[in-house]
Amino acid sequence: MKRQLTAAIGMTALLATVAGCGSGTPTGQDRAASASAATGTVTVWLMGEAQTSWPELVQQVNDEFAAKYPKVELRLRYQTWKDKIGNLDAALEGERVPDVVELGNTETMKYILNGSLVPVDRTTFDNNQAWIRGLVDTCTYQGKLYCVPYYAGARVALYNSAMFEEATGSAAVPATEDELLAALDKVQAKNRDKKGFSALYLPGPYWYAAMSYVAAYGGSIARFDNGGRWHGTLGESEAQQGISHFVDLVKKYNHGDLTVNELDQAAVLGKHRTAMLYGNGWEAAAASEPLSGDPKLKDVVKVAGMPGPNGKPLPSFIGGSDLAVTAKSQVQDLAKDWIRMFTSTKSQQVLAGKDTLPNNLTQLAPLKNKPATAAAANAVPDAWFTPVAPGWAAIEKQNVLVEMLNDIFKGTSVEAATKAADARINELINNPS
Fold it and tell me: What pLDDT, in 10s, does the model give residues 353-372?
């Protein structure tokens, strides 16, 4: 899951230890002695969220690792989503590679298929039988697990409760889409004098949202057929219905530039230019930040489940991150142990306490009843994910879905645009990126 957060790239060296080898079946005392004697360096690449949102978790795990492996040096580097892939690709071409790397769950398959990651033993990690399936799928290929779920995310409705209350008399999001659209019409009318105001801000190229409507109608981006190959399915009637529904909503409610993507949509909410958007839960906080939004919105912007077509909630994309060990790592056992500590039950509870969705259903369950997390937590079990196919990274990189949507808003019919997208998907999806 790619969050557009800014995080400084820094290097922190901390002491830790390494797992050693023994003969026969080592006792607990033997393992402790071996760990105490181990030496080496473990380099960990984490995304900026770990530095800005849960630094205490990072410190807790580093302290635990250092206590077990006192002679091992731990080097921690924070990456930004914008630069991470380029940095990682460059590192993997050389010899100075990270031992542990955080990957967004849409990024994993590329590195699994090109041999950059090593398999891990699922049974050695906490909560492995309760891991969220959508995350496990992003780490699995041909029956082997190549990464470990870290945390999950789901898109929800973020809305200005004061605007809703002023226009409709209620500060809550209606339960059905029909009721929501009626409420949005009232919000739009109430704010008709605000130039460029969008009651619902749905960016035109926002393919994650568009594909949620595809999923709502039972459609999909692509399907694995009996012949052992993937093929595009956006031209099927269910997918076309979903895309048409999304396009109708964008045209009716987005009164801004339809070519602008969703990356800065939190600022639109923060500057009072919309009453609602569909996004990640963390964007609610971004809308009340001093630089990008309005601090007065801190208790005004709220989160709710997004009503979808046919009287059901809108299916959400399952976002999140995974942690993997690189194939070129010279300290793979140590790297795996650091990941075990960072994804332990104790560590996941720190994330849950931060209203971040943990990697497993057991610790997720209490968040389903917590106001700040209920919408996202309840969306996870029925969430959809992009095709776990060899060429998916190329499809994203070449903006196939973005260009399809842009063409539609320029006047191409949904039927023609989806069939053209299927043709491009078919060219790319079966070829390793």
Answer: 999 999 999 999 999 999 88
The crossing angle, in degrees rounded to 10, of helices 237-253 and 400-410 is 60
Largest CA distance in the chain: 78
Question: Which residues share a beta bridge with 6?
Answer: none
139 and 91 assigned to the same domain: yes
Question: Has this prediction a pTM greater than 0.85?
Answer: no
Q: What is the pLDDT of residue 192?
A: 94
The count of domains in the chain is 2
52 in Cβ contact with 5 (< 8 Å) = yes
Place of tokens 């399952």: 318
Distance CA(360)–CA(345), nearest Å, equals: 9
Phi and psi torsions of 127, nearest 5°: 60, 20
Q: Where are the alpha helices (DSSP H) in 1-150?
A: 28-37, 48-52, 55-68, 81-93, 108-113, 133-139
103 with 194, same domain: the answer is no
CB atoms within 10 A of CB 208: 19
C-alpha–C-alpha distance, residues 129 and 249, integer Å = 40
pLDDT computed for residue 28 by the predictor: 59
- Check pLDDT > 80 for residue 294: yes
**Is 174 found in the same domain as 103?**
no
**E-strand stretches of 143-282:** 144-145, 148-160, 198-201, 222-224, 230-232, 274-280
The whole-angstrom separation of Cα 51 and Cα 291 is 19
Range of the domain at 219: 155-317+386-428
The Cα–Cα gap between 8 and 22 comes to: 41
Q: What local confidence, expressed as pLDDT, does residue 342 receive?
A: 98
395 touches 401 (CB < 8 A): yes
Sign of CA dihedral 140, 143, 145, 149: positive
CA distance 347 to 363: 11
Q: Do 212 and 159 fall into the same domain?
A: yes
Q: Which tokens belong to 45? A: 């690449």
313 and 286 within one domain = yes
**Model confidence pLDDT, tens digit, residues 177-236:** 999 999 999 999 999 999 999 999 999 999 999 999 999 999 999 999 888 899 999 999
Judge if 349 and 226 occupy the same domain. no
**SS3 assignment, position 149:** strand
Q: What is the CATH number of the domain that holds 269?
A: 3.40.190.10
Q: How many CB atoms lie within 10 A of CB 30?
A: 14
